[in-house]
Amino acid sequence: MRKVYARREYCINCHLCEVYCVAAHSKSRDVWKAFKREGLRGTHRLRVEERRPESLPVHCRHCDEPQCVQGCISGAMVKDPETGIVYCHEDKCVGCWTCVASCPYGAVRPGYRNGRPVALKCDLCRDLLEPACVAHCPNRALVYEGGTT
Length: 149
Hints:
Layout: E1 2-6, H1 16-24, H2 31-36, E2 47-51, E3 54-58, H3 67-71, E4 77-79, E5 86-88, H4 98-102, E6 109-113, E7 116-120, H5 132-135, E8 142-146
């Protein structure tokens, strides 16, 4: 399975991965509209951890046996058996945050979409050829390639 890997030596702490993640999961798929019209600021599915002078994007590792899926009480968090992608069915999510507490990597975070609490996590932009965070990283600090967890 292909996954996103971070090369922290190339990360310049620009947070563009977060910005384009929001846009990729918006209705319009446009950065300006996602932030200004759709009000999606803060709904990114990865985050950049900062400890000056270093920074590192934290994202889902799409584990072989994801604890977030095991901990989900509503069945919203699932792992696609064909692709191996772990994602959240936001319409089923009840906002209990058990998946947030279950993830050993801190890759699932609480959030709100359309006024409802939902779990936010990387879904590798399932409908795109390459995740938006990788495609728009100016320094290629994020790489999308095959590997194991």
